[in-house]
Amino acid sequence: MKRPANFVKARLYDALRRRGVMPMRALSIDREARINGRDWPSIAYIMIGMKPLENLQQCATEILRNNIPGDFIPAGTWRGGAAIFLRAIRKTYKIEDRCLYVADCFAGLPASDAERFPAEQGFDHSDPFLAVSLDQGKLNFSRFGLLDEQAHFVKGCSRIRFRSCRNGSGLSFDWMKMCMNPRWILFVTSIRTSLQAGISSLTIT
């Protein structure tokens, strides 16, 4: 729930949040929105819905079944749900020669800028709900028994660089700006190309 406007309720809300308690109210669920990932379940590990999850599984299994070399990186992981799911898929296939890079600020999102991005009008990116620490992300992995040497956590909201293990070609992108850019499909195409070339390393600058 959002911080109440009422003074007394707001003070109570703040006191609970300082103690790590997230106040909630019972709401009816829009099943269509939940399936398509258009809402944010307050206690879930993941923001995306079932259809995006199914698409993620299809993409991951296609890569593994066709033996396309390279590592995986969910860029912007929140509580780690999609990354945990990817790690579970690879464990199911007994894949031991790939790494999973879990990239996030692990400190919430930058302040909203409705002037540059009108769609952000009314969104409060400073809400602690969106800020998940690195330690919490690792704890969530451990709850599923998936915190191991194949899961690498990368903290930062800046430029990420890949280096191909096959031909030395590289890929560099600013994932935070990418999320705000309607041309993100070009990024997806680049990722697919780099996966086919084989990603062996990742650095943040």
Instruction: Please state the second-level CATH architecture of the largest domain.
Output: 3-Layer(aba) Sandwich
Looking at CATH, which topology of the largest domain would you report? Rossmann fold
The ordered string of helix (H) and strand (E) elements is HHHHEHEEEHHE
How many structural domains are formed by the residues?
2
Percentage of residues assigned to helices: 25-40%
Tell me the name of the CATH homologous superfamily of the largest domain: Vaccinia Virus protein VP39
What amount of the residues lies in strands? 5-15%
Strand order of the largest sheet: 4-3-5
Would you identify the regions where 5 or more consecutive residues have pLDDT less than 50?
162-171, 182-205
Task: Tell me the number of strands.
Answer: 5
- The structural class is alpha+beta
Shape: elongated
What's the short story on this structure?
The chain has seven helices and five strands. The chain is an alpha+beta fold and 205 residues long. The two termini are 36 Å apart.
Describe this structure in words.
By secondary structure, this protein is α+β, with helices and mostly antiparallel strands. It has two domains: 1-33, no CATH class; 44-204, Vaccinia Virus protein VP39 (Rossmann fold, 3-Layer(aba) Sandwich), CATH 3.40.50. The chain is built from seven helices and five strands. The protein has a three-stranded antiparallel β-sheet. A hairpin with a 5-residue loop joins strand 3 (159-164) and strand 4 (170-174). Helix 3 (50-65) runs parallel beside helix 4. The longest helix is centred in the first third of the chain and has 16 residues, at 50-65. It is elongated, with a radius of gyration of 19 Å. It starts with 6 loop residues before the first helix and ends with a strand.
